[in-house]
Amino acid sequence: MPNDAPRPKPYLVNRELERVVITGLGAVTPLGNTIEETWANVLAGKSGIGPITKFDATNYASRVAGEVRGFNPDEWMNPREAALADPFLHFTVAASTMALRDSGLLTDPTRGETTGVCIGTAVGGAGVLVGQNHSLMMKGPRVVSPLTVPFSICDMGSGYVSIQHKLYGPNHCIVSACASGASAIGESMHMIQRGSVRAMVAGAADSSVLPIHIAAFSAARALTTHNDDPEKASRPFDLKRNGFVMSEGAAVVVLESLSSAMERGATIYAELVGYGSCSDAHHITAPDSSGRGALRAMREAIEMAGIRPEEVGYVNAHATSTPLGDKVEVIAMKQMFGDHLPQIPVSSTKSMTGHMVGAAGSIEAIFGILALRDNHLPPTINQEFPDPECDIDTIPNVSRKKEIEYALSNSFGFGGHNVSLLFRKWTGE
Fold first, then answer.
1. pTM tops 0.85
2. Potential cystine with 152: which of 128, 156, 225, 391 (Cβ 3.0-4.6 Å)?
């Protein structure tokens, strides 16, 4: 901006921490290409899991996935660039544009100088990199696209959104494996609290249904082998769970300072009141079996909000459908909530979406936000054989109407990342 140009309203001042609210939502998932479609299918207990169609998976141990269907990237970005870009970028741009439109900021002429972007991912444009490497090996270096690097690097989701919508605030990409989306939301909260910006476009995207990922995760025995009945393949907390279902998509929210949202007369979905982030410092893939990292993240989020643990009315669990991971999360919740845990409904929406990898944390945060808005809790489907080591209220198979004030969302990732987000129902106060 030229030095003599009019300056925007001065948000860069030191003052009491801003309250942070959610004013926009956007998503592309295996359950739908809009928030409305995805949320309706979640509450209906529908599965977005099916046989892999992106490649011939006949010889793979795991042959099911949560694929995005019926999505046209040309509706969201330049068709020439869309043809070269990775689906992770397609999903990012679509979900971010939806969230900005929903918030009302898309038509706000002052948004540019006072809005930032923080879009996370686990693997970024891996599909582009794999494809171009194949071309290199088969035909030599002259066929490699000059756009290989920009369309494969992890930060291009946040960069592209910033460029497309002329958002001049902070521009970051957070990579914390399966906690990336939740980390992006939490760190964006801090940026608004300290007054760096008035709003942040935050979330994550991944498109990981690739031969290399399915083969590698299968080799690690992390993916399900329930191939005969795809819709029942993802079964968190169930005794017959044997691995997660790879999935894809994006989920993005617009976070905004309460003062800005009130000034604009924006619709407020919920308030973000707690964020906990820590490391297991234990193992590159396995969680600490004591649950200490998950416990610390939940405790930090609850303590930031200044509430008692028993005030949490719903937990959207990370629970991926792996034998160890689900059990460890239950161990951590028992330590966090004690004797009150049986009264707290806990569900894993991965039973329906599959594991959207980096985007898992942001889509599950959105489900917590909508549960607060609608007083309607998503189920954990495929609950057929209760695991005695996961003896909690999993909201089995059917969604539940229940008025709640606080919703907690957990996200954990390879490398020991632990993130918890705590949202409060917006009542207008």
1. yes
2. 128
